[in-house]
Amino acid sequence: MRLRTKRRFHAEVGTGALNDIMFFLMLFFLIISTLANPSVIKIFLPKTAVSQRVSKPPIILVITADKHYFINNVEVSFEEIEGVLISKSKEMDEPTIILRADAALTVQDLVDVMTLGVKNHIKMVIATQKQ
Fold first, then answer.
1. What is the CATH number of domain 47-130?
2. Cβ proximity of 98 and 37 under 8 Å
């Protein structure tokens, strides 16, 4: 009588396909992270039906509803805004400031900040949300 020994099969995981998937996921997240908006200060922007894109990296001035001022995500007081804007605009050929003001602010608050830009010959653009 001849007894057969059971052949044991060893389970193997093919890692070649897993490597490809991980590589594509890494590329996907790398590309998506470059498209993310670095401005993390939460404000509600006014809405408009027309939008315009800016091609060069501008200076971003954020004004929150409780009148906190941020230039490129660094908090400054209202008195310091003019000096910081002048120093940052000297580094650029055509300085452009994107003004991201909360919709709850009064018009006078916007005019006060925009007067600083007019006085120093700096172009200011108001950021809005598309409707």
1. 3.30.420.270
2. no
**Element containing residue 89 per DSSP (H, E):** helix 78-89
Cα torsion 23, 28, 31, 33: sign = negative
User: Which of these, 50, 40, 41, lies nearest to 126 by C-alpha position?
Assistant: 50
Mean pLDDT of 3-15: 75
* Per-residue pLDDT tens digits for 61-83: 999 989 899 998 899 998 998 89
Distance CA 28, CA 118 (A): 42
68-77, long-range: CB within 8 Å, 24+ apart, which pairs? 69/113, 70/41, 73/38, 73/39, 73/40, 73/41
Q: Check if the beta carbon of residue 64 is closer than 8 Å to that of residue 99.
A: no
